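In keeping with the milestone schedule agreed at the kick-off meeting, the structural modelling team has produced records for the first pair of proteins. Each record is given below as a sequence line and a structure-token line. The laboratory manager (R.T.) confirmed that both were archived under the project's standard naming scheme.
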Amino acid sequence: MEEEIRFKSGDLALEGLLDRAAGSRGVVVTHPHPLYGGAMRNNVVSTLVQAYGEAGYSTLRFNFRGVGASQGRYDNGAGEQEDVRAALDYLFAMGCVNLDLAGYSFGAWVNAMGQKLYPEVLQHLCLISPPVAFMDFSTLAYSPRIRMVISGSLDDIAPPSLIREMIGRWNPEAKFRVVEGADHFYSGYETELLKIMNGFLRDQAE
């Protein structure tokens, strides 16, 4: 059961939803673009939280600075990377020493681009519809942490064809799955997304 929490990112207080599970595995899930209505209760974020929760992870989703009741203002990704680090640190302090990071759209970009800030205990990155046609991924170099990338076949913000060109540079061993019929928002395709994530997390546990 998720509970409302507050945690600090620098001087800012951020709001989040925490579901604490037994064990050492945890995940932070990040939401889409704040300037386009992105927030932690988004349908894709909720699906990711469900998948990780079913796999026995503690889950933490939160609103970036300036969203909902989180203090501050939008910071073009830089401050948002600090928010991600603060969320990971929060889970780590609770005993989640095996951490994953999953993000959707803008959240995927923030997660991927801010890796240098994140704890060494971070295990895997899961990128849902990384917005490669909308935001700059040109400086994203090889990362063994990037393990799963998902997009919709009709996604014009994260086109599968463009992701295929980039994923070899990010991590040739990463899994790439395309949800047939889904656009960037996955409305009506949440169950398909959940099945893909369930399979990925089962593989990670083996």
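The second protein of the pair:
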Amino acid sequence: MSHPLIAASELESLEDTVTVALKRHDTSGLNIVGFGELSVALGWPNSAPEWVCKRTPPFTPSQFAHYKQLVGTYVDQVRASGMQVVDTTVVGLQRGDRTVAYVVQPMLAAASLGHNVLAACEPDPDHRFLTALADAIGIVSTTLSIDAQVTNFSWDGSVLTLIDVGTPMMWDDNGKFLFEMDPFLRMIPAPTRRLVKWDMTKVVERWSDKRQVAIDIVANLYREGLTDWVDPTITALNRGLQPIKPITASEALRFYEQDAKTWPRLKKLQAAQRWWQTMVRRRPYDFFIHSTFNA
């Protein structure tokens, strides 16, 4: 069933609240559902959320048009592959010459989210969620993929539904990643952006490989404190990967440890850029830095 679209006035109120939070470096006035590496998911209204609103950095009008079109195309292609995707709309709010985009979805029951589904059960390689997750890796190709971490899915007991579509995993026939990173790279100092973009381009290439996607799924279990599920998940995923070389726990742990070093470095660059923007240039910094301080 389609969920009612959020009213423009609701998003305006949310953005006003976000503006205050960014200015004060204080997220206490926000209902934070979760932090991603590039965005923050906010429940709205705060007291009784009906929607999850994932906020992007400001775009130029042409960048926003490209982003909105890309997310729509991505959702269509994932659904065409046979996978369910939660109702999603991309809404832009004009702020001067820039557009702040919100990826809006209905608020789902917390118990239906993949990591909570696993946390509520005894580890079992035959759990139907894991079986469905292993099947989902079949979507992965050199032109279309998914960020298949368990946190990115909802499970109703029989149907797996993809939630995370804000970073469309799509490449053209020449291997070019179609998601435009430049608006997001404004979160870090200008001299570092080219190198970080190169590094991130190499990182996302792993999502076009089924085996690497499976390793990433298991690595995320360490981050979520679901280590008891590592071996059962590996068993389930390896069944689905056949005849591809099986993945191992040691590979996933190395992958997790590598990410555990990479993302804090990015947050330090963000902190440096925010200091430059707010203290030197006296301009707003439009990104959240959750691992360093509140906002």
